[in-house]
Amino acid sequence: MSDLTAELTGFMTRYEQAANSHDIDRVAPLIASDAVYWFSDGSHRGLREITGAIEQTFVAIQDEVYEIQDLEWVVLAAEHAVCRYRFLWTGVVDGHPRSGRGRGTNVLVKRDGAWKVQHEHLSA
Questions:
Q1: What is the second-level CATH architecture of the domain 3-123?
Q2: Rounded-to-integer distance, Cα 74 and Cα 72, Å
Q3: Cα dist. 4→37, 48, 73, 83 in Å?
Q4: Helix (H) or strand (E) holding 27
Q5: pLDDT band at 83 (very low <50, low <70, confident <90, very high)
Q6: Is 92 within 8 Å of 62 (Cβ atoms)?
Q7: How far apart, in whole angstroms, are the C-alpha atoms of residue 53 and residue 12?
Q8: Residue 93 contacts residue 108 (beta carbons within 8 Å)
Q9: pLDDT of residue 41
Q10: Burial class, 75, CB count within 10 angstroms (exposed 0-12 / middle 13-18 / buried 19+)
Q11: How many whole angstroms separate alpha carbon 39 and alpha carbon 54?
């Protein structure tokens, strides 16, 4: 594994851990201010819309555990990268255990020496 692959894989692990903290203040710094996210239930542009959508998910799915699996790097460069993966989630929705799975694609950019998610596309 190259140093860049290890660095980016580490970033995605921190992103997954931040999501599992259910603390938007841990997630937000990992997202570019001008990012665009496409979820199954809608699209969100800019950090404010994206964090609002993520916070709604934190409320809707109690005790959620989000897991990224089968991470593959499609593009690796010094200032940008693209990955695809499969994801799983479990949690409690309206008092009942629920789970789901799908596919994800993320575009990462390096800004001011730090990696950020520029685009995320999740689909079931």
A1: Roll (3.10)
A2: 6
A3: 24, 29, 10, 13
A4: helix 24-27
A5: very high
A6: yes
A7: 19
A8: no
A9: 86
A10: exposed
A11: 10
pTM summary value: 0.95
pLDDT per position as a tens digit, 52-72: 999 999 999 999 999 999 999
Q: What is the pLDDT of residues 92-118, one digit of tens each?
A: 999 999 999 999 999 999 999 999 999
Report the chain's terminal Cα–Cα distance, integer Å. 29
> Could you give the CA distance from residue 124 to residue 77 in angstroms, rounded to a whole number?
28
Give the DSSP per-residue string, 30-65. Answer: GEEEEEEEEETTEEEEHHHHHHHHHHHHHHHSEEEE
> Residue 31: pLDDT band by 50, 70, 90 thresholds?
very high
The Cα–Cα gap between 44 and 119 comes to: 10
Q: Say if residue 97 is exposed, middle or buried (CB neighbours under 10 Å; 0-12, 13-18, 19+).
A: exposed
- Residue matched to tokens 């695809």: 84
CA angle 41, 42, 46 (to 5 degrees): 140
Domain range list for the chain:
3-123
